[in-house]
Design goal:
11 helices; alpha+beta; 2 domains; 7-stranded antiparallel sheet; 5-stranded mixed sheet; BirA Bifunctional Protein, domain 2; 37% helix; 21% strand
Length: 402
């Protein structure tokens, strides 16, 4: 078996020490990045030359009960920033924070930076009003996102190399990273896929509500009953009673669909009527054609039926799935049109009351083919997908067409 190579920074026993050291090494070799990050934290540098250390205090302090995980300081000791890092949310301790502040007070000017995965400033900060001007809070996702936007010092090859290795390592720490694209460098990982779904959902939910003009809810828990993490935006309770957008991160692709769920009654009646009425069927085909034409480069436009049953409330077993490529269904893009697929479509819709399945229309975004998926631009790609699906969503959910 081939031995898995370790990351450059993957050589410490205690993860907090490891990550703090790695961060400061990267900042030490990218001084322009360091200055801009400190500025983002509202920290003005002193006049002396800036040095960095981890674990060891620049001055031997009278207070040794607590010590920050890292230090950024000037060589004349007039200025010192202590850094306390946490790799879990809600892990800060008020007594520890006050101890750090006491130790740092020996410098002419000192600031304590609290760096944690918490999305909002911890509540303990409200209990340290006297020292509030000496404390800065920044979340790991915000810090890393800022570092990505600023980038490394391009004229410093060592710094650029370390910057790249650092972010490769940080991708493993799901709870601390912002969304930087769908990257499964070591193969598909269910935990990482779940992290991607959570991050993407938090970013695009406001856009989803604007695009579809619905007061969508989101499931409070990421569902994985289908085997892969997914998220749904829905307007009716339960989720299986609504026509809604959905997102799933799977081993070979991200799927971006609108879903006609199993429990939709009036929408299924409308869908059967659409397929039986020549005028409505032409309109339906026109929407499918637009979805195909507007697809992101490399994306597969599909219509699929999925039948399943549940062994428990949350665990689904897939009985069958029928995937129809829209290009084949319409006979475009040199695909051979075959009437049999429309017969299948109509028969499935006509017998819906006998079976437990849902209809999905949208895009399979293949990792290798849709190149924008491997960076932050993936968010724009996903938004565009849902914008493309909005007309057919309105068409299939509007009873006025009958």
């Amino acid at each position: 078996m081939q031995r898995k190579l370790r990351n450059l920074f993957d050589h410490y026993d205690k993860q907090e020490d490891h990550i703090t050291h790695a961060l400061l090494v990267v900042l030490d070799e990218n001084r322009n990045l360091l200055k801009r990050i400190l500025k983002k934290c509202d920290i003005k540098l002193g006049s002396g030359q800036i040095k960095l250390l981890t674990q060891i205090a620049p001055r031997k302090s009278r207070e040794q009960d607590t010590r920050p995980d890292g230090y950024i300081y000037s060589d004349d000791y007039s200025f010192c920033v202590g850094i306390e890092t946490k790799i879990a949310a809600n892990a800060l301790n008020r007594k520890q924070v006050l101890g750090h502040l006491k130790q740092l007070s020996e410098y002419d000017k000192s600031i304590l930076v609290l760096l944690t995965p918490d999305e909002r400033p911890p509540t303990l900060l409200s209990k340290t009003k006297k020292n509030r001007n000496r404390i800065r809070f920044i979340s790991w996702p915000d810090l890393l996102e800022a570092m990505i936007k600023i980038g490394p010092d391009r004229n410093q090859k060592v710094g650029e190399f370390l910057f790249t290795k650092f972010f490769t390592y940080m991708e493993r720490n799901y709870q601390m990273t912002p969304f930087t694209g769908f990257k499964f460098e070591d193969g598909y990982d269910l935990r990482l896929a779940t992290h991607y779904v959570k991050r993407v959902t938090s970013i695009i939910t406001p856009d989803i509500r604007k695009i579809f003009r619905k007061r969508f809810k989101t499931r409070p828990k990421i569902g994985s009953g289908s085997g892969y993490p997914w998220q749904a935006w829905y307007s009716a309770d339960p989720v299986q009673s609504s026509l809604h957008p959905g997102l799933s991160v799977q081993p070979h692709q991200v799927i971006s669909y609108i879903i006609l769920a199993n429990g939709c009654k009036k929408e299924w009646r409308l869908f059967r009527s659409i397929l039986r009425n020549p005028r409505l069927k032409r309109k339906f085909k026109s929407h499918l054609r637009d979805i195909y034409k507007k697809a992101p480069a490399g994306a597969e436009s599909v219509l699929s039926f999925r039948q399943r049953h549940y062994t428990t409330r949350s665990k689904a077993v897939h009985d069958a799935e029928t995937i129809l490529n829209i290009a084949v269904l319409l006979g475009i893009d040199k695909s051979k049109k075959n009437i049999i697929w429309w017969d299948v479509l109509e028969n499935i819709a006509a017998t819906k009351n006998r079976y437990n399945y849902q209809l999905e229309i949208g895009y399979n975004l293949k990792y290798g083919a849709v190149t924008d998926l491997n960076g932050p631009e993936a968010i724009k790609t996903l938004k565009k997908c849902y914008e493309n699906l909005q007309p057919i969503f309105n068409f299939m959910g509007c009873m006025s067409y009958l």
